[in-house]
Amino acid sequence: MIDKILNKEKLNFSDIEFLLNLTDELEINKLLQRAYEIKEKYIGKKAYYRGLIEISNICDKNCYYCGIRKGANIKRYTIVEEEILEMAKWAYKNNYASITLQAGEITGASYTKKIANIIRKIKELSNGELGITLSLGEQSYETYKEWFLAGAHRYLLRIETSDKDLYKTLHPNDDLHSFDNRIKCLKSLKDVGYQVGTGVMVGLPNQTVKNLVNDILFFEKHDIDMLGMGPYVVANDTPTAKYVLENGLNGQKEINERFILALKFIATCRLYLKDVNIAASTAMEALAPKGRERALLSGANILMPVLTKQEYKKNYQLYDNKTTLFDETKEFIDPFKDKVEEIGEKVGFGEWGDSPHFNNRKK
Ligand code: 5AD
Ligand code: SF4
Q: Which-ligand-closest: CA of 139?
């Protein structure tokens, strides 16, 4: 059964469901290996870096699962432009080729201008060479356009879950947290011309395997270029965490299951979508040692080393994640090179590593 499904050109709903439901270790390994083969075929034995700069932890939203939500009692910071440019220059000098600017969600005319200026300056300091991905939440079509014209070319906006009812259980019920607006934003990003990334959290409370199958079909329907996915991780003092802990859903057994489900999910996305970029997210590392390498071996091809300095990073805890509470860039200029080579791959230094799916869809 499993071999037949793994060799199918196009999986259907029940095939995907079957793969996500696998429990036998040997069968799971078959799935992960097959996904790696597909990645090798479409992308090669290469992993690309996106240096992650978390420019501010100020957020107007109150997503129930997130550690930097508006209601969270944390120290807020915004990195000044000069220092952001310094980090971008560091990434450029070290041949990273691409960076990602991420922040909590804020909107407004002066914010739009400020970010556009930063994008332009990063382009200038790198002779136009540094690729810029943005992860700055829901904005208007005009703002997306202004940032695109300033030089950003990829945008990440996770749908978190494609199930509208589940989405509602994870967010306050108001206009600021509208599922429909998020879909509208994904469409705007595409219309503006970005390579568009989305993704979901895996193992959310009350999420079913059928929900996850629908997530994968959602990625297909929206012709997504890039995926960033990881397991749900408990974030201290948040409503979702409270629910999870009260219902005994965060024991070691549940954590391991969530991690394996995330690996199966990444692999199945690779199997089904084939030519998209898939990130081995930091959340993978939060639940299991070598989580990111294991994601690379299951079909992911993007790594996002955190360039944010330690003094800020400690206040950018979307979830409880002690393992990455060190400055990856301080210890090694190249935090993952050894790890990537250990599994027989190379880092695509100096290359943008655009999503082949994007190039194919432009043809
Ligand atoms: N666990 C896992 N991922 C989380 N994110 C936010 N909170 C959590 C959490 N507790 C993810 C969301 C968001 C991204 C920036 O971080 O998917 O889109
Ligand atoms: Fe803000 Fe994003 Fe966290 Fe929601 S997930 S509270 S938008 S930083």
A: 2
